[in-house]
Amino acid sequence: MSHATTADAHHDHAPTKKGFMHYLTTVNHKDIGLMYLMTSLTFFFIGGLFAMFIRAELMQEGYQLVGQTITLLEFGSFKWDVSFSADFFNQMTAMHATFMIFFAIIPALLGLGNYVVPIMVGSPDMAFPRLNNWSFWILPFAGMLMLGSFLVPGGSNAAGWTIYPPLTSAQYSPGAGIDMWILAVHLAGASSILGAINFIVTIMNMRAPGMTLMKMPLFVWSILITAWLQLIATPVLAGAITMLLTDRNFGTSFFNMAGGGDPVLFQHIFWFYSHPAVYIMILPAFGVISEVIATFSRKPLFGYITMVWAMAGIAILGCVVWAHHMFTVGMDPRAQTAFMFMTMVIAVPTGVKIFNWLATMWGGAIDFTVPMKFATAFVGMFTIGGLSGVMLAAPPIDYAVHDTYFVVAHIHYVLFAGSFLGIMAGVYYWFPKFTGRMYNKKLGNIHFWLTFIFSNLTFFPMHFLGMMGMPRRIPNYHPMYTDLNWLASVSSFALGAAQIILVINFMYSKRKGKPAGDNPWGAETLEWTVSSPPPEHNFLKLPVVK
Amino acid sequence: MAGHKQDHDFYIPGNSIWPPLSCLGLGLCMFGLLNLLKFSAFTGKALLAVGMIILLVGAGQWFRVLIKEARERGFDTTPKVIDLANRYGMVFFIVSELMFFAGFFAAYFYIYGFNIEWPPANIEVLTIHLPTINTLLLLTSGVTITWSHHALIHGDRDECKKFLMMTWILGVIFLACQMFEYSHAAFGLSSGAYGSTFYMLTGFHGFHVFVGTAMLMVAHYRLKKGDFTEKNHFYYEATAWYWHFVDVVWIGLFLFIYALPA
Q: Which DSSP string corresponds to A234-265?
């Protein structure tokens, strides 16, 4: 049969140098997973630079960078000047969030999933390998549109990553920035939907003999549930931004009061995607943490079945709580109460997970490796973000702190202390599997401690700033906010610089690290039964799970 | 499965240029659309044309390879896991399409409830006659595709082709009726929220009918070429599912856009 011969042709396990054409045309889930991770890392640093700009501007009262002109390049008579306006500051806040959400966190988690999930379920690859290639290679075009938006007249999107009309209507944002944002998110969304279909079919159809649903590792469950959320929610986002695109360019009136539309409609449809998107960004991190904590506590995960149901519960509830982002638009108080109640109910399954992790660690022979340090920090810091989320779910508190730095603190405790630390735990945990070599422990520990200390010093003061009433997305502030802002800014520079250690560590360890062997952690899941890195099609003989 | 090294039935293809080429085409289309809307109409159209050609070549070659592989595999000897993967994939793709329409329907209901007067006084609403005919057309096409499918299952390929042809002809007539309706409507896309919801919903549905009709034509062509067997005809079934999905969305449009305000 033809495909047997194709498979044979690719059965060389000798490490050969792979060129650009290989990576362009590859259908191997491991190559594609690593490409996702590298892309994510690139955009993480770009989004991080934007954050550094924001923190530099907010370091002291008054304007630091806004109003300045900086010469980037001078070469004879050629001079490239960049002048920063207040509008540029707005672009930075909007695009920092955009890059981190759509181009750093989601691709990183899907990259981990792409690499690990097929091996974990005991399958040779994803269900639709060519579609997998498509899902990745559409991302560079989305990235080019996003980055290119800084070069067009009027600059990039300056209306926040939530692109609410009427601020994003043709009248108030006439430039091409918003249109480029919309087209880029369309491409990233298409990638996300087709990737989700690929994951669901892989997990439902390609499990090895004996790998029943309730024997799947929790990371696989987390990716399965995330993929469902992507499949259900992302097309709705596509609808919302399509309506905005036609409102801007073809004279439709979905969000235009004069024509019988309503801007609040956009918020409803947008958050119907974007609240589940928060869970798309955190559920795979939950999965990673579950694997890491169980492995390094040398115990089976406590309450496996409740963990699965808790994630399913979070996903289902996550689809019906979107309006808690919009309490201040003037909603019916009954609707506010209903959305408040349902939002707070999410704390129950989340609490189940937190306590299960603690119970897994309880009495375990804990080995505090670098991934375990990240996982432990995740449990504590994510709980802080979860608790401020419960506070924000109550309309009276939300009215008081809406659009203040309290919300910024909350989102960073969820997305940085949550998703980012989860990704780091996963990347360090599976690095030996990806490369066949161990990371440098000393550098890993330094990276962890600097990240842990400076992320708290950066984001914790923002709670106080928010409670004091400092508004977000404003380049200047009252002198009373100066001290805490200075602390947050200085810490954020250290936090950003600390991430370079990660790159150095991995660049060094990839070549010079100690050989890792098949299973350096003594872990139980299937990816540790194959060589590091795994053979081309993972298993020479399909594993049978008992 | 003869694979002496492979102890499973999954199909792992070799490297392929067609997916990244489709990405390049779609990417160029997006840049073209952007230019068309914001910068230069000429550059925009040129980029759109080039992008569209590359996309069609990339996707077309991709599908050609898929069909070639299906033939080499043999329809009756397709392993169950491959058939299942294809079916799951198509079902979930239709789910995502359904959610896209759900977003637009949600917008429609919101605007319907938000406006005190619906349809707005300045809108001269279309009569329900043509939409009723359209409904009958699509419902009939649902019957003919099922008839055709049953003929295929019972081995009567001539009957199958005949009714399949009737189905896509009904689709073409439907599209013609929609174009006729659009050209005679007294309101446009920019006539306020009524025009927006009406044209975007019916327009996206019309686009899906267009895609479905093209899929049916391909199914017809493949039947003529001798593809599919009584037991295994995944592409044919997927097309039928897609056609039913398009049908169901139309029922929603007919009831809520045309009938409800009238």
A: HHHHHHHHHHHHHHHHS---TT-GGGT--HHH
Residues of B in contact with A186 (CB under 8 A): 30
Q: Does the global pTM surpass 0.80? A: yes
Which residue, among A147, A252, A272, would best test binding to B if mutated, counting the most B CBs under 10 Å from its CB? A252
Predicted pLDDT at B195 = 95
The number of C-beta contacts closer than 8 angstroms across A and B is 220
Q: Is the Cβ of B80 closer than 8 Å to some Cβ of chain A?
A: no
Give pLDDT tens digits for A163-195.
999 999 999 999 999 999 999 999 999 999 999
Asked whether the beta carbons of residue A541 and residue B13 sit closer than 8 angstroms, the reply is: no
ipTM over cut 0.90: yes
The region of weakest confidence among A355-359, A374-378, A453-457, B7-11 is: B7-11
C-alpha to C-alpha distance for B148 and A307, rounded to whole angstroms: 47
CATH number of B77-259: 1.20.120.80
User: Using CA of residue B190, residue B193, residue B195, residue B196, what is the dihedral sign?
Assistant: positive
Where are chain B's structural domains? Answer: 15-73, 77-259
Residue A299's pLDDT is what? 93
Residue A249 φ then ψ, to 5° = -115, -20
Distance CA A432, CA A435 (A): 5
Give the closest residue to A299 by CA, choosing from A352, A354, A361: A361
CB contact under 8 A, A260 and B88: no
Residues 222-241 of chain B with CB under 8 A from chain A are none
* pLDDT 10s digits, A385-438: 999 999 999 999 999 999 999 999 999 999 999 999 999 999 999 999 999 999
- B96 with A197: Cβ contact below 8 A: yes
Option in A127, A187, A193 nearest B96 (CB):
A193
The CATH classification number of B15-73 equals 1.10.287
Once rounded to an integer, what is the mean pLDDT over residues A468-477?
A: 95
